[in-house]
Amino acid sequence: MWHDAWLVAGKDLRLELRSRVALNQVVPFALLVLVLFAFALDPDRGLLERATPGLYWVAVLFSGLLALQRAFTVEAADGNRDALRLSGLDPSGIYLGKAMAVAVQLLVLEVLLGVGVAVLYTTTFTGWPLLLATVGVATAGIAAAGTLYGVLAAGLRVRETLLPLLLLPVLAPVLIGSTRAFEAALAGAPADGWPWVGLMAVFAVLYIVAGVLGFGPLLEES
Q: CA 186 to CA 184: how far, in whole Å?
């Protein structure tokens, strides 16, 4: 399973490196969202500082949706989904591989957005252990749930609009937990943020298990 997962993850990441779609479209979109938030709230600098954790994770979710849609759009062209289905690869390995490729893209995106927040919102990051743990478990949760719902919507004609409708409500616990954990870290009270990290870890584990068990049947039906 893990051998197949590394094969699929490597294939997806090489496709992105060659096409540069994420670099040329997703990253500029994410930074534009941060700039628009800054324009909207800059007159009230105190409100902008208080809202920075939430704005950061909203930008991550919106931009992550583009990366998730891209991960399944490449399989829709030229019968690639049928080729993947008939390849003999373990469906659980395919799921883990696609989730790992999405997670790597999200991590790169989150680092760039962190730099953007530091520059545009003049945010000083503190509580690094909590911040890094939050980024890790939140990324795993978004990638795990997004990959599962991505294959669910992949075979439908309205997948571009259906995926956000399905996924954003499901990711509400990740948005709330990551925002609260970031608030605690930036406020210098990391003890208040670790319970939220635990909640997100449970969410990520549940969706990884659901994906490993359910991705195969969903791929066959898509």
A: 6
| Cα 112 from Cα 98, distance rounded (Å) | 22
Most confident of 23-32, 63-72, 111-120: 111-120
* Cα 89 to Cα 1: distance, rounded to the nearest angstrom: 8
CA pair distance 116, 100, nearest whole angstrom: 24
Q: Which of 140, 131, 127 is nearest to 201 (CA)?
A: 140
SS3 114: helix
CB count within 10 Å of CB 129 equals 11
pTM score of the predicted model: 0.88
Instruction: For residue 84, give every residue at least 6 positions away whose Cβ sits within 8 Å of its Cβ, in sequence order, or none.
Output: 75, 94, 219
For residue 98, what are the contacts with CB-CB under 8 A and spacing of at least 6? 8, 9, 12, 71, 147, 150
pLDDT digits (tens, 9 = 90+) for 196-215: 999 999 999 999 999 888 88
Residue 156, helix vs strand vs coil: coil
pLDDT in tens, 26-56: 778 888 888 888 787 766 667 777 888 888 9
The token pair that represents 42 in the structure block: 């800059």
The H-assigned helical ranges of 20-158 are 21, 27-41, 45-76, 80-85, 91-120, 128-154
DSSP 87-99: S---HHHHHHHHH
Q: Measured between alpha carbons, how far is 69 from 182 in angstroms, rounded to an integer?
A: 27
Q: What's the token pair of residue 41? A: 């709230």
